[in-house]
Automatic annotation (TrEMBL):
Gene3D superfamilies: 1.50.10.10, 2.60.40.290, Galactose-binding domain-like, Immunoglobulins. This is Endoglucanase. It catalyses: Endohydrolysis of (1->4)-beta-D-glucosidic linkages in cellulose, lichenin and cereal beta-D-glucans. InterPro entries: 6-hairpin_glycosidase_sf, 6hp_glycosidase-like_sf, CBD2, CBM2/CBM3_carb-bd_dom_sf, CBM2_carb-bd_dom_sf, Cellulase_Ig-like, CenC_carb-bd, Galactose-bd-like_sf. GO terms for molecular function: cellulase activity; polysaccharide binding. The keyword Hydrolase applies. Residues 761-868 form the CBM2 domain. Belongs to the glycosyl hydrolase 9 (cellulase E) family.
Length: 868
């Protein structure tokens, strides 16, 4: 993946052009006679350019791919392919571009400049990029050491009008010796249908969350209408009976979507059920539920994604079903070269090999990347740590997830995170640094099942960023496993300390931005944020003064780096802030309060522009929607969720659910970006195994998999041809070839898992109300607290949480287990007041020293309560 970057590190896209998709044209192309060319017809071809980046002015080869034995480099404005000799057939060595549109019976003219280090013949071939690799036309050209201009006109016998499986390739093989062939100004013009257009997915006029709305929370939809007056809407149940109606609120033109929109608010209707629809005139929405159940299910399906992505172990049918079961990948079983003895790239020559079996495949390819694995693992672990400290950790207990470790006595979320944490440990070099990534020496074809990948595997160089990711996650893990597996905790902490020391000794060893063959580069030219994050985790776990000094001395301290651009694998400082705000440590209370206040400030900024949007989402994208925009939406939703945790304000909770509504269908494409959720949900993720679109014997994306989402920079051939001129929220298509908008990634699904885990917790508990009455006396106070169940379901256990704004210190309590850490207080039920019936209350209390102000926000099991 070659990362597209904006000027600010914090807003780097979470992905990039990962692979050049080298799917060769079969030998059948050579059977197409050169007589299919019609030189006289060249002037009849329309000037519709069918190729992308044919002049290589971008400085990169993307989207041109190369096959095994060929290395592409852009040199002096030309694409130069270094070809290994000794092949038999011309098609044994290829460079090409997929997604090229052709129309049957139309004329096309290919033109290009080319030369070679040693004179040889090459074949230019047009045809199909997937089996059965049907050919359209081909012609042989004699290259010399001098640059020459070539043209070739032909008529298409196949039809790929919408950038489907068409391909243009140069066949460079069949030569006894190594050679270098350079091409430039490659152009293919012709046809009757210009590239570009609109997303072909059908859209609705009434846009809803296709999965559902939670009872007791706001319920909003978007109507696409140019009418300037309110429109009548009708809510119908599954039998088609009208159950509510009202008037829409016109909002006018919406920049992000390009639509003229109205807001529909049907929050007043709160009856649980399935199959509801909203109608305005003749236009009807997709069906949806009013229920807490879908978000609870998605919490686990989003986590199941990680088991699907495991490397080095069979994915078993008993956990995923027959459709998704597969043998272990990259375990040295032919044709795999395997991950048990992987050397460094030849240009690094590190002098050792590493056993790096295991871990998660990062995305739709077979690469494994420490910086992506770092933030993804941290997000899963943080979800667990937050639940332990302020929420409901029972949701992640042993046996809650469908994974092989579900009966080992360890919380399942920790088991899944350990699969990647163990891999991160394996990526540590003898000197303490961590290798940036491990992947194939060349890009594999699409599709390629993991166990059938025949590419050799190589370690990239160590980097400071990767080393600090290891330090941060290992320190975080050491804290969480301390009371579960002391030996493993100690192993993690030793690795974390060693990595942090190594990073300080090598503070500017940056990943090579040109290391993008066979795997994404993931380059990162600023690592002060990773230093802050790692120091925060190490200090929180150990309390060591040296780590504390690095935290408080960082320019990122007190959430200085948090803004509406959010966080990503390339901008990790807010991860340190989150840990410092959630986990007990010895930092000044005023500094922790400042961090929490910063989250509320940024959350307010999100809410302000969500209020103006036609499809409310915490991502304004004023400069365009970037690669992995859905992860940006969800990471910003995490900021909103934490603002709710820190303040108890319902507006932030509501903002989180608005973000989920956008991801699950209330968007201008009427599409749920989560596979398996919604009437029109993503199916054709860019993935080498979930590749049903390319091979009907393979599955579609499994339920709970998150698409990267709209990317207005159109960084793949399918998107670039189909979506020219798209408004930012419409720059998406459900196509396996559209990798810049429809790939999946572990650090995108970790964001979905964190947010859905938090949201499921909010809807999993009925309403609550807290009355807090303090009676002050000299140097202290006595406090009586009443906690009332205002919902419709009995509580089976409860935990009250709040934060003292002042210096109070609890000295004793009654009718609950009271615990205080710093300013944070929890009260947990006793056996005799474990159950609280609907409408019932528990009366608890405590004495405290100090005379600070009363707390203003309370939660029960992580859900905010009204104050009485």
């Amino acid at each position: 993946m070659v990362l597209w970057e904006r000027s600010q590190k914090a807003v780097k896209a979470d992905g990039g052009p990962r692979d050049m998709r080298s799917t060769r044209l079969a030998a059948a192309l050579l059977a197409v006679l050169s007589a299919t060319a019609h030189p006289a017809a060249a002037t009849a071809a329309a000037d519709y350019e069918r190729l992308l980046n044919g002049a290589f002015d971008t400085g990169t080869a993307d989207p041109w791919w190369s096959s095994a034995g060929v290395t592409n480099r852009v040199t002096d404005g030309e694409l130069c392919a270094s070809v290994t000799g000794g092949t038999t057939n011309p098609w044994d060595a290829l460079i090409g571009q997929n997604g090229v549109p052709y129309e049957t019976g139309q004329s096309y003219t290919l033109s290009f400049d080319a030369h070679a280090t040693t004179a040889q013949n090459v074949v230019a071939a047009a045809g199909e990029s997937v089996s059965p690799y049907r050919g359209i036309a081909s012609q042989t050209f004699a290259l010399t050491t001098a640059k020459q201009h070539f043209t070739f006109t032909f008529t298409s016998t196949l039809d790929f009008p919408d950038a489907g499986n068409g391909q243009l390739a140069f066949q460079l093989g069949g030569q006894p010796s190594d050679n270098t062939i350079c091409v430039d100004n490659v152009s293919l013009i012709g046809g009757v249908k210009p590239p570009g257009g609109v997303n072909p997915n059908p859209t609705k006029k009434v846009q809803v969350d296709q999965v559902g709305y939670a009872p007791g929370l706001p319920k909003r939809a978007t109507l696409v209408s140019a009418e300037t007056t309110p429109q009548t809407w009708t809510l119908k149940d599954s039998a088609g009976t009208a159950v509510a109606s009202g008037k829409s609120t016109p909002k006018g033109a919406d920049t992000a979507s390009g639509d003229s929109v109205h807001l529909i608010d049907f929050s007043s209707f709160d009856t649980p059920g399935t199959g509801y629809t909203l109608s305005v005139g003749a236009d009807t929405s997709f069906p949806f539920d009013i229920s807490a159940d879908p978000i609870k299910k998605l919490r686990y399906d989003s986590l199941a994604f990680f088991y699907h992505q495991r490397s080095g172990t069979p994915i078993e049918a008993q956990y995923v079903g027959d459709e998704y079961a597969r043998p272990a990948g990259h375990v040295n079983v032919a044709p795999n070269k395997g991950d048990n003895d992987v050397p460094c790239r030849a240009d690094i020559a590190c002098g050792y090999t590493l056993d790096v079996r295991g871990g998660w495949y990062d995305a739709g390819d077979h690469g494994k990347y420490v910086v992506n694995g770092g933030i993804a693992t941290w997000q899963l672990l943080n979800s667990y740590e937050r639940a332990v400290r302020t929420g409901d950790a029972s949701a992640f207990a042993d046996g809650t997830m469908n994974i092989p470790e579900r009966a080992n006595g360890v919380p399942d979320l920790l088991d899944e995170a350990r699969w990647e944490a163990d891999f991160l440990l394996k990526m540590q070099a003898p000197d303490g640094m961590a290798h940036h990534k491990i992947h194939d020496a060349n890009w594999t074809a699409l599709p390629t099942r993991p166990e059938l990948d025949d590419q050799v595997r190589r370690l990239s160089a160590t980097s400071t960023a990767a080393t600090l990711n290891l330090a941060a996650v290992a320190a975080q893990g050491a804290r969480l496993w301390r009371g579960i597996d002391a030996t493993y905790s100690a192993t993690l902490l030793t690795a974390a300390r060693k990595a942090y020391t190594a990073a300080k000794a090598n503070p500017a060893k940056l990943a090579d931005p040109n290391d993008g063959t066979g795997g994404g580069a993931y380059s990162d030219d600023t690592v002060s944020d990773e230093f802050y994050w790692a120091a925060a985790e190490l200090y929180t776990t150990t309390g060591d003064a040296a780590y504390r000094a690095d935290v408080t001395g960082s320019p990122h301290y007190r959430a200085a780096g948090l803004n509406t651009d959010g966080f990503s694998w390339g901008g990790t400082a807010p991860l340190g802030d989150i840990t410092l705000a959630l986990a007990p440590n010895g930092l000044p209370a005023a500094d922790i309060a400042a961090i929490k206040s910063a989250f509320a400030t940024v959350a307010d900024q999100h809410l302000a522009y969500m209020e103006r949007m036609g499809y409310a989402t915490p991502y304004e994208g004023a400069d365009g929607y970037v690669w992995g925009s859905n992860s940006t939406v969800l990471n910003n939703a995490q900021v909103l969720a934490l603002a709710h945790d820190f303040t108890g304000a319902a507006k932030y909770r509501d903002g989180v659910f608005e973000a989920l509504h956008y991801v699950l269908g209330r968007n201008p494409l009427s599409t749920s970006y989560v596979a398996g959720y919604g009437e029109q949900a993503m199916r054709n993720a860019h993935h080498r195994f979930w590749a049903h679109q390319s091979d009907p014997t393979l599955p579609t994306a499994p339920p709970g998999s998150l698409s990267g989402g709209p990317n207005s920079f159109l960084q793949d051939p399918v998107a670039a041809r189909l979506l020219v001129g798209c408004p930012v929220q419409k720059c998406w298509v459900d196509d396996i070839g559209a990798y810049s908008v429809n790939e999946v990634a572990i650090n995108w699904n970790s964001a979905l898992a964190w947010v859905t885990g938090w949201a499921a917790e909010q809807v999993g508990r009925p309403g609550c109300e807290v009355s807090y009455n303090a009676h002050r006396w000299h140097q202290g106070q006595t406090v009586n607290v009443t906690v009332k169940n205002t919902g419709k379901t009995a509580w089976a256990g409860w935990k009250l949480a709040f934060t003292f704004p002042g210096p109070q210190q609890i000295t004793g309590g009654w009718s609950a287990h009271w615990h205080q850490t710093g300013h944070d207080v929890t009260a947990t039920n006793l056996p005799w007041n474990h159950t609280v019936a609907p409408g019932g209350s528990v009366h608890i209390g405590f004495t405290a020293s100090g005379s600070g102000a009363d707390p203003t926000a309370f939660t029960v099991d992580g859900k905010a309560c009204r104050t009485g």
